[in-house]
Design brief:
- The chain is α/β, with parallel strands linked by helices.
- It has a single domain, classed as NAD(P)-binding Rossmann-like Domain (Rossmann fold), CATH 3.40.50.
- Helix content is 43%, strand content 17%.
- It has a 7-stranded parallel β-sheet with strand order 3-2-1-4-5-6-7, sandwiched between helices.
- Helix 4 links the parallel strand 5 and strand 6.
Length: 233
């Protein structure tokens, strides 16, 4: 596929979202990102918009100013947060806030961009789930719930729009050398995780970029989930 695309990345100021933003920009793609609490530390601030994915007006305004009905749109949903607590001690407000960001925020963004994709007859939507939703990890019920829910949501939206050349897929990420793995996981836990990965190494985010390119270029891959976890199950 040629580069006549408008690539939108939520949560593009840090972690995997930041890596993908910078990688696409380095390849001269027309890419735009959002941030909420963490302004991007680079020289392309004009390609960023402050967006709270819990606020539908923020999302709609970003879409309206960034894309037009003539664009071939790729939406990559990286915005997300984490909250760890065992269930019996969880703060319900923090638990539901995570669901609102990770799951509802993803849906709000998809909902805002789908009409443009449908009218154009082209769209690529890529959501990010996690190995945490497959491999039970104590204290991650909110995060695991939000990421597992993306699978069912993505499959339904995929079949609803397949006849319009709109694909919807999910990448299930393992533990990578950037993002929440580095910022949220204690060193002793990280050591245990590495021991469980067959090659005992954290993932290189370049692998995520290559998977995203595959999904952008594949018109027949939709409603699926792809594991990128180094064989960790």
């Amino acid at each position: 596929m040629n580069k006549n695309l408008k690539i939108l990345i939520t949560g593009a100021s840090k972690g995997i979202g930041k890596f993908l933003f910078e990688r696409f920009l380095s390849e001269n793609y027309d890419v735009f990102g959002t941030y909420n609490y963490n302004p991007p530390q680079n020289t392309v601030i004009e390609r960023f918009t402050k967006v709270n994915v819990c606020n539908i007006t923020d999302i709609q305004n970003w879409i309206k100013k960034t894309v037009s009905e003539d664009d071939n749109i790729v939406l990559i949903n990286c915005a997300g947060t984490n909250y760890n607590a065992i269930a019996r001690k969880a703060d319900i407000a923090l638990w539901t806030n995570l669901i609102d960001i990770n799951l509802n925020g993803t849906f709000r963004t998809i909902n805002a961009v789908l009409p443009l994709m449908y009218a154009k007859g082209f769209g690529r939507i890529i959501n990010f789930s996690s190995v945490v939703a497959q491999k039970a990890v104590a204290g991650t019920s909110a995060y695991a719930a939000s990421k597992a829910a993306l699978w069912g949501m993505s499959r339904v939206i995929a079949i609803e729009n397949a006849n319009k050349n709109i694909t919807v897929n999910t990448l299930n990420l393992g533990y990578f050398s950037t993002g929440m793995t580095i910022s949220d996981v204690p060193e002793n836990v990280l050591k245990t995780i590495k021991e469980q990965i067959p090659n005992h190494e954290l993932g290189n985010p370049e692998n995520v970029f290559q998977a995203v390119l595959f999904l952008i270029n594949s018109e027949y891959t939709t409603g699926t989930s792809i594991d990128i976890n180094g064989g960790l199950f």
